[in-house]
Amino acid sequence: QVQLLESGGGLVQAGGSLRLSCVASGRTFSIYAVGWFRQAPGKEREFVAAVGWSGSRTSYGDSVKGRFTISRDNVKNTVYLQMNSLKAEDTAVYYCAAAWGKPWGPAGEVDYDYWGQGTQVTVSS
Fold this sequence. Notes:
By secondary structure, this protein is mainly β. 0% of the residues lie in helices and 49% in strands. The protein has strands at 4-7, 10-13, 18-24, 32-39, 46-51, 58-60, 68-73, 78-83, 92-100, 114-115, 119-124. Strands 2, 4, 5, 6, 9, 10 and 11 form a seven-stranded mixed β-sheet that branches. β5 (46-51) and β6 form a beta hairpin.
C-alpha cells in the first residue's frame, strides 16, 4: 500500500515557475514508477510526466516538453515536478500516481495503482 500527498500548487503569473512535490508513504517506494497527470475543468485527465523507479527514465507529454522536469529522491520518498514558463493553459488540478514494479513511467492512467488527492495550479495571464 502506498499513500501519496501532493503539495506546492498555487497561483502564479504566466511565465513563472512552481515546483510540485509528491511525498509517498511506504518502504517500497523505490520500486514504483511515478507519474504526474492533470485535469482542467471540463477536460479529461491528461498525462504530464513520469519517472521510472531509478529516476533515469523520464517521459513527458507533448504540451510540457522543454518546460517541465520530473525528478525523484528515493531517500526522501519524494517525486518533484519543476514547472517553468507556465502558461494559462497549464491551469489544472495536478495529481501524482504510483505504478508498482515499472522501471519506466507509463503514460496511461490505467497503469497506475495509487493516486494522490491532487493540488491546484492556477496560472494567471
